[in-house]
Amino acid sequence: MQISMPALLSQLLLGLVNGSFYAILSLGLAVIFGLLNVINFAHGALFMLGAVLAWMAMNYFEINYWVMLLAAPLIIGLLGVVIERLLLRWIYKLDHLYGLLLTLGLTLLIEGILRSAYGVSGLAYDAPDQLASATDLGFMVLPNYRAWVVLASLVVCFATWFVIEKTRIGAYLRAGTENPRLVEAFGVNVPLMITLTYGFGVALAAFAGVLAAPVIQVSPLMGQNLIIVVFAVVVIGGMGSIMGAILTGLGLGVIEGLTKVFYPEASSTVVFVIMAIVLLIRPAGLFGKEK
């Protein structure tokens, strides 16, 4: 089977775009699990909610994409603060299963409300005019919006990694989950820090949702199509590993894109095959810490 170079590069770009969504979503999951020890199954629903908010703002209030790229994560982040304060704070000391079941229930609630309001058919959301065209690179035509998605995702992902791993704020976050009493002795409000951490994690999901809105048709079910793959990405990278979530998300997106070129039938399962192999060889994940 002969594949032309433009077709191969186009599929690689598509894989990198999908990998960018995987990276941001798995990063949010890794932040929440690594620092709060909660398996946040509602992540896909909050990703979808970010896209729906952008669509509603455009169609009902004529608020453009750029405003919602900042506003949607703030709104969903505040919603995350409410969820953490009212619900999650009561289950931190319980088994992981309770957090998974609680956030699964939230997912079903959010999706059910939006399905009754908008149905399950996709809602079109156009890319901003500034990024609607494409650039001819000679060897391929590069859609400007897809290039923007990759660039924005990389900036947000590595900025998050830097804050958590290389700054004092990140050190307090990590220490607060391991020894909260010691951190509180230094005058740090650990419960507030945990609340804001969850809010930030779900804000990342909403940011990815707004980025995805012009690429994936906005639908109450759009989070379902990604969240299972994103959980696999987190497991492969290592539960709670920030850099593992970023690199694994991007890498698996590219592998998935190449699989669609050379063996399309396996494209929907290749991530799970890789997950099975990784778990057999290294149960903690590629970047996870062995206990």
Write the layout of secondary structure elements.
Blueprint: H1 5-36, H2 43-61, H3 65-86, H4 96-118, E1 134-136, E2 141-143, H5 144-166, H6 168-178, H7 180-185, H8 190-212, H9 222-237, H10 242-262, H11 270-281
Antiparallel strand pairs: 1-2
Helix pairs in contact: 1-5, 1-8, 1-9, 1-10, 2-3, 2-4, 2-8, 2-9, 3-8, 5-6, 9-10, 9-11
What features would you describe in this structure?
Helix content is 71%, strand content 2%. The chain is mostly helical and 291 residues long. It has one domain: ABC transporter involved in vitamin B12 uptake, BtuC. Strands 1-2 form a two-stranded antiparallel ribbon. Helix 1 (5-36) packs parallel to helix 5 (144-166) and helix 2 (43-61) packs across helix 3 (65-86). The longest helix has 32 residues, at 5-36. The chain is globular, with a radius of gyration of 19 Å. The mean pLDDT is 88.
